[in-house]
Amino acid sequence: MHSQEVTKRLLVKKSAPPLFNHQCSVIATLKLFASKWKPCIICYLAERPMRYNDLHRIIPNISRKILSEHLRDLERDDVIIRVQHDHKLQKVEYTLSDRGKSLLPLLEQLQDWGMANLEDVLSIKEMLELTLD
């Protein structure tokens, strides 16, 4: 895994020269978990450790391929921990790492902001119906 330097930058002056060796900390944070399903996975794992099939059953309309990719990504980014309990039976559980747990207040704030400010947004059911078309 390569190391990257992350800076804190919300506003950039147009006259400022581009910084090719730096990334915006907001973008870096969003890239860590911003996808259609990663916040959902994180929220379910906040409740308790879960196995792959439990996650697949509880998350509506997620494909097995996408779930596997997201679990690998989240593990690579140290957001979740993959724990193999029995090598013969391949019993694996996923749980949040300390880094993953540190995302929970941020996700809660995003949820609170959305509930307070986005009264006309689509419901989860409506979003899923759009993706099925």
UniProtKB/TrEMBL annotation:
Keyword Ubl conjugation: no
Ranges where the HTH hxlR-type domain occurs: 24-122
Keywords: DNA-binding, Transcription, Transcription regulation
InterPro entries reported in the protein's UniProt record: HTH_HxlR, WH-like_DNA-bd_sf, WH_DNA-bd_sf
Keyword NAD included in the entry's annotation: no
PROSITE patterns reported for this sequence: HTH_HXLR
GO molecular function: DNA binding
Superkingdom, natural source: Bacteria
Name listed for the protein in its UniProt record: Transcriptional regulator, HxlR family
